[in-house]
Amino acid sequence: MSNAAAMAEAEAVKAVPVGGRKEPRNYIFWFAVVWLVLVLLITIFGEWLPIVDDPNERNADTIKKGPSWDNWFGTATFGQDVFSRVVVGGRISLRVAAIGTAVGIGVGGTLGLLAGFYRGWVDSIVRLIINVTLSIPALLLVIFIVAVRDQSLFWVVFAVCILAIPALARIVRASTLQVAEREYVKAAEVVGAKRLSILFREVLPNVMPTMISFAFLTTGIILVAESSLSFLGLSVEAPTITWGSIIAEGRISFQETPHMVFLPAVVLFLTVLSLNFIGDQLLKRYDIRESAL
Amino acid sequence: MVLVIILVLFALLAAWVVRVAGARFAVKRLGGAVLILVIVTFGTTLMLRQVPGDPCITALGTGASDEAVAECTSERGLDDSVVEQYTGWVGDVVTGDLGFAFYKNREPLSDVLEDRAPRTAWLFLYSQLIALTVAVPLGIWAAYQSGRAPRGVPRWILPVAIAALLGVAVVGGWGIAGILTVSVLVPIFVFNGIRGGPSGDSTVNTGAFVLLSIPVFVLGETLRYFFAIKNDWYDLVGYSPWNEGVGAHISSIWLPALVLGLAVSPVYLRLLRADMVQNLQQDFVAVAKAKGMSNRHILLRHVLRPSTLTLLTVAGLNIAQLVNGAIVVEFIFDFDGVGSYLIEAVARREFFAVQTLVALVAVLFVVTNTVIDVVYTTVDPRVRAEDEK
Phi first, then psi: what are they for A81, rounded to 5°? Predict the structure, then answer.
């Protein structure tokens, strides 16, 4: 079940028409990279930048105002600057996504690599872990974990890691299975290289590109999952800001504050789009089969 | 009663699989599914014990009397071992006792489901239909265009169209972002669509890609704003069942279903296109072409047909996407389905109801996928041979 799906997913991205595409439209790729770097820089430097104010500073004169030169994204319920809130909220959202992906690559990638390379009982166990975790829909699983424990940053990150591990393990396993069948791996075996050396010298470098590309896609998925969670009001609690919680707050008095819903949503959308696009392009660029033939 | 029918159906399915594909295969596949089911449901029970403090005190509130807490604890098997608690839970669920939520005066969960599950089921059904009607024609079209040369549509149409739309937009006076989007993106899309060929293919692909990247709640909020707040085309009055008339039923559900359908359609679209592009490169397509069959016949009968199996598998896996989407969509549209019940139960810390719901969804997901998987593998000997390697 999982393997077929993983392969299909990877194929869906790679499928290229017979003639091959003439010009890879790289300018969109670079646009995505620039956007992502911009978002990262602004969220990391945050309050040190002159364009960002204190996100919690209340101002009675500007309550629920639309976008203007002073407040690019308008103002929130108590007159806080929404742009600053988006910047500071992005820090939590992006951090959760980054940690989730890192753990996903570390744990899930290792599991997938071992499963695909050693096969046998290791594979059975890893496959069981993947199937069990994936049999609960992602958002439901995250909601369940957060509901059972509490809505602190630690448990949100934990839940998101639980999400990322099987997703990446599945992809890496499928990719490893493919790579392990290839001639150079067989050749290394014939030459008498040690198993571990084959794993690290032959298989891992060739699985890496797929893993990195899917890491971008996974980051996007986690970002969406975390935002959905805080949109539903189940993520990190009140004084902490995330992108989803800004949107959820703007939603309450929608008629007056549509900018609080749409502008953060556009930022979130563009970030997810960039992540997906970069992952997609990398997957096409480093597709092992295509470049080998 | 329902349970008996379901069990009989499963027995028939298992018997059929054993007859066609052999007992070893059946045990491997069905046994694997049962193992996963047991582990998942056991996992949810185990999670229930991870609630900080006493789950019963949290669920009943700190003002609850000691007797009530003690009753809840023994009723839920929290004073037994995990295994006893789990077997007790399984016994209850199998006999149709799904437990209850405290805050609604102990309204049994099975009543809630009886009331609300049809709504969510209709939502799923309509959204799947919408997703497929969007994705299948576009997927076929994109796969077909991907191998063709573009038509010779002159390039000057593009700036003319942009200028024309820009003019309309300026005169009409929409918001600045709207002007930019509509007057630049729409002509480019239409232009590429008319040109067909690889650019037509990439237009569909890009559209699917963008749709895939929009979080469901953003899509839902946007469409809700446009259809229900800005214009009065959708009433946020809640669900009305079939027996209140077809018109009322459809008009009460179309927007949530549209949001959910749009959210899952790019998955189908991309997979169908990829699968069909692969099929188009097969030898049998060349043979069919050499025999003089029409393009339409080749596409629909020889290329689409093998892809329907892939589509079916994806439909099974997409249940997860649907559940994720339904939770959010029901929240946005105040649609009283199972998803909004879940959110409510989580907000009220009704762990037992939440745990049962999560376990039931997992069971539904695993069972559906196993059935699809087993049927597909049994029907198609190629996949079976591949699997036994």
Answer: -80, 120
* Distance of alpha carbon A2 from alpha carbon A100, whole angstroms: 21
Profile chain A (293 residues) by mean pLDDT over runs of 10 residues.
53 52 66 91 80 70 70 72 83 90 92 89 89 88 85 88 90 87 87 86 87 90 89 79 85 78 87 90 70 40
Tell me how far apart the alpha carbons of residues A108 and A224 are, in angstroms, rounded to a whole number: 20
Q: Quick one: CA dihedral A106, A231, A257, B186, positive or negative?
A: positive
Distance CA A229, CA A140 (A): 10
Q: What is the CATH number of domain A3-291?
A: 1.10.3720.10
- Go through chain A and tell me how many residues it has: 293
Token digits for B219? 């899509």
Residue of A nearest to B340 (CA): A232
For B50, which of A5, A148, A231 is closest by C-beta distance?
A: A148
Handedness of CA B54, B55, B60, B61 (dihedral sign): positive
Neighboring chain A residues of B44 at a CB cutoff of 8 Å: 144
Long-range contacts of A154-158 (CB under 8 A, 24+ apart): A156/A96, A156/A226, A156/A229, A156/A235, A156/A236, A157/A96, A157/A99, A157/A100
Residue with tokens 């009675």: A60
Question: Which tokens go with B170?
Answer: 């300026």
Query: Tokens 């994109």 label which residue?
Result: B142
The answer to whether residues B277 and B263 touch, using CB atoms and an 8 Å cutoff, is: no
Do B358 and A254 lie within an 8 Å CB cutoff?
no
CA atoms within 13 A on the CB side of B16: 13
Q: Where are the alpha helices (DSSP H) in chain B?
A: 2-21, 23-48, 55-60, 66-75, 82-94, 109-146, 157-172, 176-180, 186-195, 197-213, 216-224, 246-280, 283-290, 295-297, 304-332, 338-347, 351-379, 381-388
CB-based burial, B26-56: b 16+ in 10 Å, e otherwise: beebbebbeebbebbbbbbbebbeebeeebb
What is the ipTM score, two decimals?
0.84
| Two tokens, residue B226 | 């446009």
Q: Which of residues 157-216 of B touch A (CB under 8 A)?
A: 198, 201-202, 209-210, 212-216
State pTM to two decimals.
0.84
Q: A14, A31, A29, A12: which is closest to A209 by C-alpha? A: A14
CA B56 to CA B13: how far, in whole Å? 41
Which of A139, A150, A219 to probe the B interface (max B CBs under 10 A)? A139
- Angle formed by the axes of helices B82-94 and B23-48, to 10°? 110
Interface contacts A/B by beta carbons within 8 Å? 163
For B259-321, give the secondary structure using H, E and C: HHHHHHHHHHHHHHHHHHHHHHCCHHHHHHHHCCCCHHHHHHHHHHHHHHHHHHHHHHHHHHH
Give how far A222 is from chain B: nearest CA, Å: 11
Residues of A in contact with B47 (CB under 8 A): 144-145, 148
